[in-house]
Every structure is written in structure tokens, then in C-alpha cells.
Design a protein that fits this description.
Blueprint lengths: L4 E6 L9 E9 L5 E8 L8 E8 L2 E2 L3 E4 L6 E8 L5 E7 L7 E7 L10 E2 L16 E2 L5 E8 L3 E8 L7 E2 L15 E10 L2 E8 L3 E7 L10 E6 L6 E4 L5 E5 L12 E6 L7 E7 L5 E9 L2 E8 L3 E8 L1
């Protein structure tokens, strides 16, 4: 398996607009540019937490600017997604609690320079429709599959499917798992890939000490019961991408304890659709919080962002 190498930097060194930041996302633009977003404010869940973005052009990130704000309403978990025609979508949650938050979406036709007025993704949604933290994928049948989850009485995952480029959404079944159904426990925040037409798979954050997995053979409409993999999980976010040559690249904290340390942070690779994994690169180690990664592939390279001690958003450019 090919080795990974890369360079690390930060999207910003200092910023006057927020003291805490978390939950980054990124997408590719034309000409090799990248767009990143995250939520930032005084502290996660505070009413001054808004969505911020930065653009990377010719290797340099622009100063952060607000992309979404509503006075007195906490913002959460932005997700950037570029459609096949180059339109950029910004999904994010708003609300005072996880159980009652809902999803807004704004659209940019000029690669993130300006945005449409945000709208509610699914009218009347409470709990969170559409992508909860990780990016949607475009299936080989043309549908969009968005990894979704709920943090209500129990933690539950599902997938939202859009056959019409994000205009309407239909949710899959709630994915069953042989895990605790107590409040605050379960499986959430899926990350998706497709192995062959209509065969869609997910890895999930869990409270059980391991990353869980579920599989679908009908384009994500229905899912089998989730099962534990051998990958440890600390009940923190994960993300993966399937590369152009069929490799899976997963960014995660390899710590097998519920609410365990969010360090180290590593990239693991799989050449067999997630059956086996090999750790390929350590991004962070030592004391600190290095969490909630996002990963994409563009131009033959892998790009990763993640939370760095709630103070910065770290960025890696990786090559094989």
C-alpha cells in the first residue's frame, strides 16, 4: 500500500471574530481552489456562534468571513458540497439543542463568493435532515446521498436521498444496531461511499468503543443492521473519501473509549472496500484536541481539515 506524505498548515493563525472554532468542512473549486467552513464564536452552543468560511487560492487562505448568521441562534456543523455543475452548497444546523436543531441550506453559483438567502432544507424539520456533519456523495445513479443522524432520546443514523439535485429529500430507515438505547448513546454522524452501483456503505461514530458499519444494496434506501468494525472509536467524528483509484482514506482518532481522548489523529487506508485497514500517517499526537476531520480528494491529492484545540483549523495537503 502506498505511503502518504504531506504538509501541515493552518487556515488562519489569529482571528478577531471568534475565540473558539470547531467542525470544519471543505470542498474543491475550479482551478484548484478550495473552500473551507466551520462554526465559530465564544463557545460551542453559544448564541454568537456563526458559520465562517475561507478560500484557498494559489496556496494561500483568505481571511475568515461570516457565511451565515442569525442573531441569538447557535449555528452548528457546516457541510460544504460541490455538485456536478459546479454549484456550491452550504448545509448547516441551527438551534439551541441537538434534539431540536434543523437544517438550513444556502447556495453559491460563484464558488462561495456570494450566497443565496438560506432556506430550511426540509420544511418543518426538527432533529436534523440532510447531512449532519459529513459531505453528501453523488451515487452512480445520479442521486445525492446525505449522511444524517438524530441526537434525541437515542442516537440514531439514517441517510437522506435526493433524486433531484437537492430539491426534495426522502429518508431511509433508521439504522438498527445492537448497541445501548439509553439517552445519549448509539451511532451517529455517518460517512458514505459507494463500491458499485447501488451498493452504498457507511462508517459511523459510536458510543461503543469502535467505529460501526452498515451497508445498503438499493442505493441507500434501506440499510442492514450496523455492526462493529475493528477500528477503535472515541465517540468523536470521522470522515472518509473514496479516491479515484478505489482506495478508501479514513481520518479518525484511533482511541477505543467512549468520550476518550481526541488524540492522536491519523489517516488509515483500505484497498478492499473497508474490510481491512492500514494506518498510513499520523497527523497529530500528544496532548490536545484534534478532532472532527473532513477529507476530500481533488487533482490527485488528498486534503484534510480538522479542529486544532478549538483555537484553529488545521489543514493538510497529502500525496501518495
Amino acid at each position: 500500500m502506498a505511503a502518504l506524505t504531506g504538509t501541515k498548515s493552518f487556515i488562519f493563525e489569529q482571528n478577531d471574530g471568534f475565540t473558539s472554532c470547531h467542525a470544519s468542512t471543505l470542498t474543491h473549486l475550479s482551478g484548484g481552489d478550495l473552500l473551507a467552513a466551520w462554526f465559530g464564536g465564544t463557545c460551542e452552543g453559544d448564541p454568537d456562534v456563526d458559520i465562517w468560511i475561507s478560500r484557498r487560492h494559489k496556496g494561500t487562505w483568505s481571511p475568515p468571513v461570516k457565511a451565515a448568521e442569525e442573531a441569538g441562534l447557535p449555528h452548528w456543523n457546516p457541510v460544504l458540497f460541490t455538485s456536478g455543475d459546479g454549484t456550491v452548497y452550504l448545509f448547516y444546523k441551527v438551534g439551541h439543542t441537538f434534539s431540536e436543531w434543523y437544517t438550513r441550506v444556502a447556495v453559491s453559483t460563484d464558488e462561495g463568493r456570494t450566497w443565496s438567502q438560506p432556506r430550511e432544507l426540509v420544511q418543518g424539520d426538527r432533529g436534523g435532515r440532510g447531512p449532519v456533519r459529513n459531505k453528501p456523495i453523488i451515487l452512480q445513479n445520479g442521486a445525492w446521498a446525505a449522511p444524517a443522524s438524530l441526537e434525541q432520546a437515542a442516537w440514531e443514523a439514517f441517510v437522506d436521498i435526493s433524486p433531484d439535485a437537492g430539491e426534495t429529500w426522502t429518508s431511509s430507515n433508521i439504522i438498527q444496531a445492537g448497541v445501548s438505547r439509553e439517552p445519549g448513546k448509539g451511532i451517529i454522524q455517518p460517512t458514505l461511499w459507494e463500491s458499485q452501483p447501488n451498493h452504498v456503505h457507511m462508517l459511523l461514530r459510536s458510543t461503543e468503543g469502535f467505529i460501526y458499519r452498515s451497508d445498503s444494496v438499493d442505493g441507500g434506501k434501506t440499510w442492514r443492521e450496523a455492526y462493529a468494525t475493528m477500528l477503535p472509536n472515541n465517540n468523536s467524528g470521522i470522515d472518509l473519501v473514496k479516491t479515484a483509484d478505489g482506495m478508501l482514506a479514513l481520518v479518525h482518532n484511533p482511541v477505543g473509549a467512549n468520550w476518550g481522548p481526541r488524540t492522536p489523529l491519523v489517516v488509515s487506508l483500505s484497498a478492499d472496500e473497508g474490510v481491512s485497514w492500514q494506518q498510513a500517517l499520523v497527523l497529530e499526537e500528544g496532548e490536545g484536541e484534534f478532532s472532527y476531520p473532513a477529507i476530500i480528494e481533488a487533482g490527485g491529492k488528498l486534503y484534510v481539515t480538522y479542529t486544532w484545540n478549538r483555537k484553529k483549523i488545521a489543514f493538510w495537503e497529502l500525496v501518495w
